Automatic annotation (TrEMBL):
Gene name for this UniProt entry: lptG
Identification of the protein by name: LPS export ABC transporter permease LptG
Lineage: Bacteria, Pseudomonadati, Pseudomonadota, Betaproteobacteria, Burkholderiales
Organism: Noviherbaspirillum galbum
Membrane topology recorded in Swiss-Prot or TrEMBL: Multi-pass membrane protein
Localization per Swiss-Prot or TrEMBL: Cell membrane
NCBIfam families membership: LptG_lptG
Amino acid sequence: MTVLQRYVTKQIVGAVLFVLVAFMSLFAFFDMMQELPEVGRNGYALQHAFMYVLLGLPDDVYLTLPIAALIGTIYALAQLAAKSEFTIMRASGLSTRSATWMLTKIGLGFVAMTFVFGEFFGPMASEFAEKLKLQAQGSALSQEFRSGLWTKDVIREKGLQGDPIGSRFLNVKEVTPDGTLKGLKIYEFDQEMHLNALVTARQAEYQGRNVWRLSEVAETRFFTGAPDISAAVQSTTAPTRDLISEITPDILTVLFADPDRMSALDLAAYTRHLEENNQSTARYKIAFWKKLTYPFAVLVMMALALPFAYLHFRAGGVSLKIFIGIMIGVSFQLLNSLFSHLGLLNTWPALATAVLPSMAFLLVAMGALWWVERH
């Protein structure tokens, strides 16, 4: 790494981290104000609210890093331009291509940081925060649904393997934060969607390896073509029973989670589960591709910041350039969110929906660089 590369890297990294800390402090303040009305209700204390806000910060870091990279880079480059340091760099042979490559090498570190927060720290912290809040309030995940939670599963010949032989619909009254299901009803159908069995259980606890342990089980089976009604319907009870299902606590948690706060790995697994059950996957596919492509928005934002270094100080103060950077960052987030909804409504390809906002801003950055270099 050259002396120039180290110097510019130090200036930009310091500015980006400063902006990021400022954003996190602001977000934490507003989140805390939002949580305060719930403090004191059902055992939800001030320390729980503080931990809930603190655990939400990794996801905020993931969402804010591209904007922080834009504003921090604009500030650092504007300072270099104000002190004529960037002019000296250009006079010493720093071309636009070399400056772009210099920013790209700095940006790759922020891309990796964004990916780590979006794939690991953010989803894990958000999930833990929601469980902490529910446990403190003594509530369950599905209490807000009047008919309970519904999900679908495939019945196979050999548990998780073999050809499908039917479908299974599960209705759960409550899902506790530790993943226990309460008030469980299971409807099993054959390939022709004839009801084969109705199973009820007081609760179900996950044992691992796709096995659920049902408690206080009552099962009613229906047989078509039976000679009389007594043979057509048979009822049994059991204190416990194991159920092999593709449904896991992680999949159930996804039903309550915001797809944008999930990891790409969880999104891929849940999308595959929905496809196997012939359910809509558009929303989760868009979220999956956004999760993979969003970190590279850092490079686009830093490319948008580079033209500001070519503007002379008299053309606009540092504060004006930072304000323009904030507006660009807000516009990017709004456009990114808008395209997600438009792609879902118009059934656009998920990959195109995820990358179009970044590509549009990249074209703007290339056009701005061409303009400042010509003028």
